[in-house]
Every structure is written in structure tokens, then in C-alpha cells.
Amino acid sequence: MKKILLVCLALVWSLGAFAATEPAKKEKKTVTTVFVTDIDCDHCVQKIMNNVPVLGKGIKDVRVDLPKKEVTVVYDASKNDDAHIVKGFASLKVKAEPKAADTAAKR
User: Fold this and answer.
1) What is the pLDDT of residues 66-96, one digit of tens each?
2) What is the pTM of this model?
3) Given the DSSP bridges, would you call strands 59-65 and 70-76 parallel, antiparallel or unpaired?
4) Among 2, 16, 51, 103, which residue has the least CB neighbours within 10 Å?
5) What structural domains does the chain harbor?
6) Which of 91, 86, 39 is nearest to 65 (CA)?
7) CA of 55: how far to CAs of 23, 28, 52, 59, 107, in Å?
8) How many of the other CB atoms lie within 10 Å of CB of 91?
9) Angstrom distance (rounded) from CA 55 to CA 90
């Protein structure tokens, strides 16, 4: 009986140690993506800013630049990605696509 108890205790201990290291593998990675949009007025800006949760989970920050027609989104990559954010914009009737990396590098 003692051997069975010791084996069970050892299994629980090893599973606990394994589970404690698991969250370390899932590091939060914050990503900043600039989206080119079709916004053209303050109403469009307010529609985006008032509906940030529609863009998806893990959104940390949203900044809208109306003259450039760009929306900068900072998000947790473990909870969201560019494709889901584009779908979120589409649900707001805003056309958006990630800005090409080469044009962002020219800044």
C-alpha cells in the first residue's frame, strides 16, 4: 500500500513540475501592425475607436491616423493575428489590409 501511495505521489509531483514549466513556453509576444484602410472621416475614426473589442482578443492599443488612412494596432500575438483583425474591420464595414513591410521600413 505504501508503494502505491509513493508512486502516486511521485506522479502527481512530476505532473505538477511539468505543468509549472508549461506557461513559460507560451510567452506573450506583442505585435504592432499598421493597417491601410478606406476611412475618410471622423465618423469612421469614432466607429473604430468605439468598437475596439470587435477587432478581436488581445488588443492592447489602437491608434488611427485619418490623413494617412492608417490604423495602428498593438496586440498579443498569442490571442490574435492580422487576418482576424482584418475580419474585425470588415464587420465594422471598414476595408483594411496590413501595410506592406517594405513601405513601413522606408519611414
Assistant:
1) 999 999 999 999 999 999 999 999 999 999 9
2) 0.67
3) antiparallel
4) 2
5) 30-105 (3.30.70.100)
6) 39
7) 25, 18, 6, 8, 26
8) 10
9) 9
